[in-house]
Amino acid sequence: MQSPDPGSSDRSAAANPPQPGITALTGSGYSQEAAGLLPLVDAAVLEELEDELAGSGLAQRFARDYAAMWDQRCTRLAAAVDSQDSESALDAVISLKISSAMVGGVRLAKLAELLEVLIRRGDFGQGQALMKRVALDGGQTVSELQATYILKNG
User: Which end of the chain has fewer CB atoms at under 10 Å, N or C?
Assistant: First the structure.
């Protein structure tokens, strides 16, 4: 993936400190702290999607739909993690991971990947703690997406 556009957000991990107890996840090769260093939105991903779709407006529509569905998607994932429903939690977190990556939400996609590892391990205690960070960074990702792409190109 390319570096963030100089105009895009690159909020530091200090602005969003990691939750206690969620450090390096053995086997994933990545940590919540490292994920916090990633930009919220990588504008180059959306530019590439626009190019692939020949400027048809589908990338813009996808970004709008992604933002509009955030609250519902986050609520569904949180409920599945809280109830320790592995099947529903995996379905929701994989959907979040893929859609976030497609829209350029690189930090949220990485956090979803970390959460997926915890769910697969059945570690719902750490999953609930990480879910707080997913919710926070997800809201910030949607705000960033709206400010730097949806409103700008809409």
Answer: C
Task: For residue 15, give the amino acid letter.
Answer: A
pLDDT reading at 29 higher than 60: no
| Cα distance between residue 147 and residue 154, in whole Å | 11
The residues, any chain, with a CB within 8 Å of residue 106's CB and separated by 6 or more, are 1, 38, 39, 40, 41, 42, 45, 100
Residue 31 has φ and ψ, to the nearest 5°, of -125, 165
Of 44, 48, 43, 25, whose CA–CA distance to 35 is shortest?
25
Strand ranges (E), the chain: 24-25, 30-31
Q: Which of these, 122, 123, 132, 19, lies nearest to 74 by C-alpha position?
A: 132
Burial class (CB in 10 A: 0-12, 13-18, 19+), 91: middle
Give 68-81 as a DSSP string. Answer: HHHHHHHHHHHHHH
Q: Report pLDDT for 7.
A: 39
Q: Among candidates 75, 62, 60, which has minimal Cα distance to 139?
A: 75
What is the pLDDT averaged over residues 76-84? 98
